[in-house]
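Hi C.,

You asked whether I'd gotten around to modeling the 79-residue construct. I have! Everything is below, sequence then structure, no commentary in between.
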Amino acid sequence: MEIKVLGPGCPKCQTLEKLVKEVLNETGIAAEVKKITDLKEIASHGIMLTPGLIVNGKIKSTGKVLSKADVKKFIEQEL
């Protein structure tokens, strides 16, 4: 599984990345987490508002920090 957290490094982006890692640790799900900070690369994924969350190539969220429950739901959808 590949998970991308997209954002320039703002507090919201950092919070989303932290939540993703917490969910993976708690569930034992194996995934590669990539932090994308380059604005051109973020835009190339179709993300115009950050933070963005992409799981296995599918955009799951843009422009908001998700709850831990939502992060878990989006990750489990791709298992």
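If it helps when you're writing up: The chain has a mean pLDDT of 97.

Thanks,
B.
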